[in-house]
User: Fold these one by one.
Assistant:
Number 1:
Amino acid sequence: MVDYKISVEYTEWVVRQACAWTFQSADFPKVSLEEKSWVVSLASGFDEATIHLLERNLNEFRLREIIDVQTAGLRMKIVTHSLENTYKNIKG
């Protein structure tokens, strides 16, 4: 197995999503946590193109995670407002 280390600053969700978008399901790597890094282990090793794609996907999913956190309150307000209006319409 060949290991590739990723900063522990990324959440597990980000690391696993990036791996899911980088690797085929048959080649899915083992992901584990060490003290200061995530370790992605792959039997066939990593070529430069795969590492580049993995790093791009890490950044993509980190950005999605940040946007999700920043918009959580607004999304909750929209859902609450929609449910309140639906309840008012049903109640008559």
Number 2:
Amino acid sequence: MFLHPRSDKIGVKKDGTVWTLIAKNKHSGQLLTEWRELRRWDGKSRKNHLVDIPFSLSSVLYPSSSKRNKAVTAVICLECYIGRSLYDYEQASHINDDPGDNSYGNLKAQCALNNFIDELFRNHTVSHAHNKRTSKKECMRAIKRLEELLTTL
């Protein structure tokens, strides 16, 4: 079990499942003697990328966030695997392009721009992937804009 860097009451296994020692519902905040799995619910057309975390842990894990009881499963998993919280500019990225696979070794931390580039060239076969596409001309325009921005820094 990989524990979260901000709390020893939440962790993940190598398969990407998220576990906690905090009771749920009316006993929320109380410690359990055994780990319980925090499940992602199955929507009608896709598996949700959020997991409900106990309210007592949400302010510990993400003190500057307005999120109440939800966390992105990939982020929770990656932070546990690497042993630190992600920096503000980092996102969790799936190496094998399967957004449902949060297993050990399939996540990496990278900036939003590189994550978006990966999504552009990913072969989207799932309906919820939004099929982001672009042309070579628009890619060249984006490269030019980035070069201009970098010269002004």
Number 3:
Amino acid sequence: LEEISDKNSSDSIKKETLLHSAINYSLMENYEESFKKALAAEGLFTPEDNNYADLQILRMDLYIRNGKYKEAETKGILLSKITDLQPDRKYMLNLQLSLLELNRLRSLKKATAADAAGFEKIFSSALSLVKHDTGLLNRKGYREISAQIFDEYINYKMRTGQHTDAHYYNEVKKLLIASSRCGENLFKYASGMIDMDAVQRSLPEKGLYLNIAKNKDDLFVWTADKKTKRAFIIEKGYDSFIKFRMRNEKIFVSGKDLNRISAELTGILSSLAGAVKDRS
């Protein structure tokens, strides 16, 4: 009996070590190594194990990242059959399922509102879960994966001309992450902060609302004054900004030659020139 107990304990440690290693590699964006570790863990885990769902969710995420949508869909079907799936896992599963639907939408030559209905329903279901309990993001890796999936959703909204929705979900993403970090559900105080119409009403006559957000290598920009709203994408804007910052790190520290780097930064953000002119 003692030998059996020791073997079970050793197997359990090996399984958990492989799973955590796979998650860590994924967070470091080393998806190839993460996949290897997760695949090795797959041969050890059984549906009765506590973290079985975590492994399957990770495998599903890795399949999506590698464009293996059929395999990811198979994992999604498997997870959907688990009747006692805990709320945090259910939230992450719904996010992953929404990504599969988003891929389906992108494959269509022209997606209609009816085509998008399934995607919107699944994403809204995930959002409803986490807005009521922002602590769901505190499971290891969930905050980072959530941010990445929200960015995909925001990207879709922005590039299909749904700019107000894109702005809204960009602010929701920030609130979710901030809430999970501080332990307080900030949605209780934020209704006017994420509603563009409410923001416009609160602006002074010559005031300008400006919001710049990273999305992959791009910058997404939303502006609004009392009467108008505008949104646009600075392609490779974030990539350009990071390269600019790396080139000028020593100048920032020394405080010298700031006029030159100010001009360079203005060039990266040249699309904003008209929007901010003569604003208070």
